[in-house]
Specification:
Layout: H1 6-79
Length: 80
Amino acid sequence: MSAISPVERLTAAVQRLEAALEARDKTAAGLRGEVDAAVKRAEAAEAELAKLKTDYAALSAIADQVEKRLDKAIERLKAA
């Protein structure tokens, strides 16, 4: 039975380390992609929220105008 030499053990350890580092790099690249996609989705959501706030302000102003016109019409009907 032959014993494994220290050089062979070291070579095997280096190969395992290289494999682990390669797996880590692949995982990190995947995570970077996920983070980039999440950032893009967040930016799109922020833009949509800004648009919705603008639309809400416009609709609120229109609702105020309609309310005032209805109040005037009601007053005219009550006076008649």
